[in-house]
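lol forgot to send this yesterday, sorry. struct tokens for the thing we talked abt
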């Protein structure tokens, strides 16, 4: 018999993992990433002068929507009852960057790491899309899991990093 927590069946074919026997627990994940850009482009975002409108407000909604739809975006990912999603931004004028952090919570049988990572990724892509007419050379960078709690594997906190204060 195959390992019940693998995406491969006994014949080596892809399948969705059966999490039916796992306990329902509260789970949370925090992911972070950034979009690098020129200082002039970042100034336009901060000052609300981007031609397409309020970049960070639209990116926040896009990130939240992505977290809620991760099961439809990522093959073999479980659709989860997401109970809370926040997407926050920290413009860094010195670095010419917008830092993005997503926090996702659920009470379910599996974790929300993919939902947090999807939220950051789609928020970053939205920033790029809304600013590309001004600057095409932006870089989406360093998307990573910062923290995860709940479930059998317990607590994970990336060494050297802390989640931002919960908003």
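and heres what i got for the seq, position by position
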């Amino acid at each position: 018999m195959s390992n019940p927590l693998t995406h491969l069946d006994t014949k080596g074919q892809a399948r969705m993992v059966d999490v039916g026997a796992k306990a329902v627990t509260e789970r949370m994940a925090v992911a972070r990433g950034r979009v690098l850009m020129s200082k002039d482009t970042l100034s336009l975002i901060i000052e609300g002068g981007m031609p397409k409108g309020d970049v960070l407000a639209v990116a926040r909604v896009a990130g939240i929507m992505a977290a809620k739809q991760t099961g439809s975006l990522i093959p073999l990912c479980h659709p989860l009852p997401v109970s809370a999603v926040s997407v926050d931004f920290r413009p860094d004028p010195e670095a010419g960057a917008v830092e993005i952090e997503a926090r996702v919570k659920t009470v379910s049988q599996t974790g929300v790491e993919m939902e947090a990572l999807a939220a950051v990724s789609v928020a970053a892509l939205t920033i790029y899309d809304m600013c590309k007419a001004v600057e095409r050379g932006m870089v989406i960078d360093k998307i990573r899991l910062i923290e995860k709690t709940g479930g059998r594997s317990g607590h994970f906190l990336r060494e050297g990093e802390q989640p931002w204060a919960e908003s």
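The two ends are 45 Å apart (CA to CA). anyway ping me if u want another try
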